[in-house]
Amino acid sequence: MKVSKLSAPLGARIEDIDVRSIDERIWQEIHTLFLKHHVLVFPSQSLAPEDQMNFARRWGSLVKFPYGGLEDYPDIIVLKNNGKTADVNQHWHSDMTYNQAPPKLTMLYAHAAPEFGGDTAFANQHLAYQGLSDGMKSVLNNMNATHSAEGLAKLFGQETATAPKAVHPMIRSHEETGDKALYVCRAFTQDISGFHRDESKALLEFLFSHSVRMEYQTRHHWQAGDLVMWDNRSVLHFAVHDHGDEERVIHRLQVQGVSTL
Ligand SMILES: [Fe+2]
After folding, report:
1. I want to staple 69 with a disulfide (CB 3.0 to 4.6 A). Which of 3, 26, 74, 140 is the partner?
2. CATH of the domain spanning 2-255
3. Nearest-5° angle of CA 171, CA 172, CA 176?
């Protein structure tokens, strides 16, 4: 197993490993690397849906999706290039924070990827927290915000009034490492508890920009066979749609996390 850092702010690439056949000791090593680097890339894998699910299950139970799952494997959602206008992932977010217990990790396996474009960008939210002043950190430490799926519902042409919502701390302590991270995102964070709307809007706007400063970011360019997993408690991500109609087929699954409050 060969490990190399992906970039200064986050990420590691793990080569010379087949995730279908790893023992407990190697898994422990991978788990430690995951907590340290937040995004892991395993190139050149050859995974059937069961293989991807078995590897993911080492971290916990899979999150079933109400729609879009594979017929025989409802835990796996297929991400396909449906053209830019139908794209719903072109925004910075942590997955499904409109649920009270959002998935702790997301795992994507690429079956087909464009030669150029279609990257996934990541931003390290532990660094975003550390980059705040002591004054701002202490203000945010006791604050909560509402996250909502209203925007998504609108995109899917569904009822917005019944879209799921959840309240999360704005600074989240990672339950495995104890490390603090900024926990807001432009896609889902709607307003700050106890604030007037205009106060909330101004502060959130600052945090949305701050959270994705260039020095917290990296990008992954996909190759077929890449397995990539990220920690939704530690990073935001953004699917860049700049590949026109070129084929991009990815199998996605998620592992259940705990309630944040
Ligand atoms: Fe996502």
Report:
1. 74
2. 3.60.130.10
3. 150
